[in-house]
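Bump. Still looking for Transcriptional regulator, IclR family structure tokens.
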Amino acid sequence: MDKTLLKGLMLLEALADQNGKPVTIPVLAEQVGLTKSNTHRTLQTLAHAGYATRDEATGNYRSTFKLFELGAKQMATVDVRQFAASHMRALVDLTQETVHLSILDGASVVYVDKIESAQPVRAYSVLGGHAPAYCVATGKILLAHQSQEYLTRNLTHLEAHTKATITALPALKAELARAAANGYAMNRGEWRESVGGVAAPIFDAFGAVVAAIGISGPLERLSLKRMKELAPAVQEAASNISRAMGYRK
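Sorry for the wait, here they are.
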């Protein structure tokens, strides 16, 4: 493990043990076995990332709620697969297309669950695999619910994978705004030329978007018209999973 990352994790754990109470740099340094200067530099990095905050009057540090939110999101990621399973199967039966359950990881999506279509020709993907979030439907709807700062920080290089890939950030942001307004996002051959998809967001009990459910298949079946026809079914599946996780609009 990277030494800088290890220092940060050690300090986060030490801050969490204080239950939100401010603590001095010397005390933290002693607890984690670092020098005061090392502790100070790492705390500054954690503060910049929003995981710690510094009391201007005393110079002491404490953890923020962002650490709690991170833990809550991780728990939601584990739980969402259990809540989603039956709704994924129902969506496969209804649409006859492959269904994916995805989470966001920086500029990528991770496929945490999937059910294959019974169709002889279908979209190829790997469980646990990654895809550029800005190129696939589940990734686009997840990005549509992130802050502008998140988008600017993570989408620094929009590589073209097909002729349809959106490679200009302003154009992508406009596309994401439309997806947020519509409640679903579409991929029209932006990751793989012959593959399209439509996806909707899943909310947890805190009202945060923690995952996305989507269908994907060859564009010869999933035309733009067909994707729009199936979008309400995808949205209903996402809503059912969200309600099962405790979300109330």
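The first strand starts at residue 52 and ends at 54.

Edit: fixed formatting.
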